Amino acid sequence: MRIDIISPLPELLKAPFSTSILKRAIDKKVVEVCIHDLRSFANNKHKKIDDYSYGGGGGMVLMIEPVAKCIELLKSKRTYDTTIFVTPDGQKLNQKKSNSLSQLNNIIIICGRYEGIDQRVRDLFIDQEISIGDYVLMGGELPALVICESIIRLLPGSMNNSSCALSDSFQDNLLAPPIYTRPANFKGHKVPDILLSGNEKKISQWREDQSIIKTKERRPELLK
After folding, report:
1. What does pTM read for this prediction?
2. Residue 162 belongs to some domain of the structure
């Protein structure tokens, strides 16, 4: 998989991809992540990529020209399965969406900033718009990172134990069950006996039951 991220502030994106699972996935060539500085596509000597909003209103708006220039350059070199714009008014990200995106080969993600982005970018270039929640951040870089991590951790070879991703919350519309590790007894608080029994069938059933109970208590709408 290849993920191209277009950003006005690419420095915000670099550190997370240089550590932990994301770095390992890149080093193992499970995924290729390319970060593009939007200012390098500006059509003016001052590298200006934003301007005032037509019709008035506060805040600056990202211009269409540098975004279009970057996207057109990328698409001249390869075929992309989808182009994503991260925005608070997009479709809310969930595990099902991450699973779907992880099946693709080439993805473009565009990060907004300032007051927003020229609507013509959304009309002409965007296939889908994704939100990570009903709140507003200063830009799209952090949501883009959330989307990338939710995708990359699902790719075969990115995690040492690929079965971990399959047991995550929301994979089967259930929350994950409680988990425990050593010591088995901490000041009288003990690990459930079933988890120490070695009976894989009963352990599996216990985990499923606990997932259902937890989901009913915390996110009952998922069971619908």
Report:
1. 0.87
2. no
